[in-house]
Amino acid sequence: MLVSIVVPTYGEAENLPYLIDRVAELAQARALRLEMIIVDDDSRDGAVAIVGSRPESWVRIVVRTEDRGLSGAVLEGLRRARGDVLVCMDADLSHPPEAVPAMLAKLDEGADFVIGSRYTPGGSTSHDWGFLRWLNSRLATLLARPLTHASDPMAGFFALRRSTFEAGRDFNPIGYKIGLELIVKCRCERVVEIPIHFEDRRFGVSKLTLKQQLLYLKHLRRLYAFKYGAWSQLVQFLVVGGTGTAANLLLLTALLAARTPLRLSVAIAIFGSMCFNFALYRRFSSSAARSSPWPGAFVHFVLASSAGALINYLATILTLGRFPGVPPQLAALVGIAAGAAVNFVASRYRAFKATHVRVQRKSG
Ligand code: GDD
Ligand code: MN
């Protein structure tokens, strides 16, 4: 059996000799047949020369020069791998190669995906994170809960059979969480964790930036859509609708407290929540949709939801007139429901036209 170890690198030249040494020792001790594919994103830090000077013929380096990124690099390595079993690990020795045999054993026992895990019982880390960093990591894991029950789904240390990888489809890697992407897109049922000690890197710095963290939210949205299809649309609708409603009611309450006239307050609150929803959509929509400049997109958005907004306003004012003494927030809720119903029907109609109505082109 051949084992392929894929190692993404960006500026890890200093770590490579230590990594290769340790993997070589392991291969000797456990009589493993392996190949190591280092996928470097054109770091130009001497990594190529280091790998070239090594005696181990089973190590090779692939240099990518187009679109940098951890997930894409890992996928490239996995596609090039020839092994029956694929392992992925970081180059900075945070992940102990010595755990690989135990991971292979779990695959042998029928696991689809094995994680070298920091959080499963027996696992540990040497990073002494502050409260906020810890909270951030825990929150990120919690958000992945509907996708997998693993305690450390963010890990970059994992193993799977090549057949599992080849059965995967629609890979769309963004950000850092390639393991989670594989679990979902390869439809891994039996995800097993073995405990590891996650060592802090000795050389170089982490490349995990805030931007990557934000990309994670977008990645999650795609993974939910893949796994839950139409249901994820509904959740999205509820999240956007729910936060928009909260924005509307908060604004309305604040305006009324500042003694703004009632009808004006209602109108401003509706417009405010529209702006809020627009910002939310734009934040999480695809980058293709965001390539248009925002003012034009905003006008488009306002026009598209103007009927709903108008109905919202009218229903709110009507309720207030019909039932004097009703709290304005309650009337606003009635308006929001009416507006949402109109928007919903309008969007179904547009979707219908987009997919079913073929306008005949005039000839000549
Ligand atoms: N080819 C390539 N391209 N490799 C990259 C890139 C890139 O754009 N960015 C990072 N890498 C490589 C690094 O060189 C390293 O070998 C590995 O990916 C992990 O990057 P680090 O910068 O060391 O990440 P980290 O230690 O902060 O994060 C690790 O732990 C996280 C959980 O806390 C990684 O294992 C993450 O995957 C994991 O989520
Ligand atoms: Mn690291």
Concise account of the structure shown:
By secondary structure, the protein is of the alpha/beta class.
Describe what this molecule looks like in 3D.
This protein has 364 residues and is of the alpha/beta class. It folds into two domains: 2-205, Spore Coat Polysaccharide Biosynthesis Protein SpsA, Chain A, CATH 3.90.550; 229-356, no CATH class. It has helices spanning 16-30, 47-52, 70-80, 100-108, 131-143, 162-167, 178-185, 210-228, 230-257, 262-284, 294-304, 306-322, 328-356; strands at residues 2-9, 33-40, 59-63, 85-88, 113-117, 124-125, 158-161, 191-195, 197-198. Strands 3-2-1-4-7-5-8 form a seven-stranded mixed β-sheet. It has a two-stranded parallel ribbon with strand order 6-9. Strand 1, helix 1 (16-30) and strand 2 form a beta-alpha-beta unit. The N and C termini lie far apart (65 Å). The structure holds guanosine-5'-diphosphate-alpha-D-mannose and manganese (II) ion (MN). Manganese (II) ion (MN) binds at residues 90, 92, 94, 201, 206.
Distance between the termini: 65 Å
Q: Percent of residues in helical segments?
A: 40-55%
Strand arrangement, major sheet: 3-2-1-4-7-5-8
Average residue-wise pLDDT? 91
Structural class: alpha/beta
Number of strands: 9
CATH architecture of the largest domain: Alpha-Beta Complex
Low-confidence stretches: none
Hey, roughly how much beta strand do the residues contain?
5-15%
Cα-atom radius of gyration: 26 Å
Tally the helices.
Answer: 13
The count of domains is 2
The CATH class of the largest domain is: Alpha Beta
Shape: elongated
Helix and strand succession? EHEHEHEHEEHEHHEEHHHHHH
Briefly note the CATH topology name of the largest domain: Spore Coat Polysaccharide Biosynthesis Protein SpsA, Chain A
* CATH superfamily placement of the largest domain: Spore Coat Polysaccharide Biosynthesis Protein SpsA, Chain A
Report on the biggest sheet: 7 strands, mixed
Bound molecules: guanosine-5'-diphosphate-alpha-D-mannose, manganese (II) ion
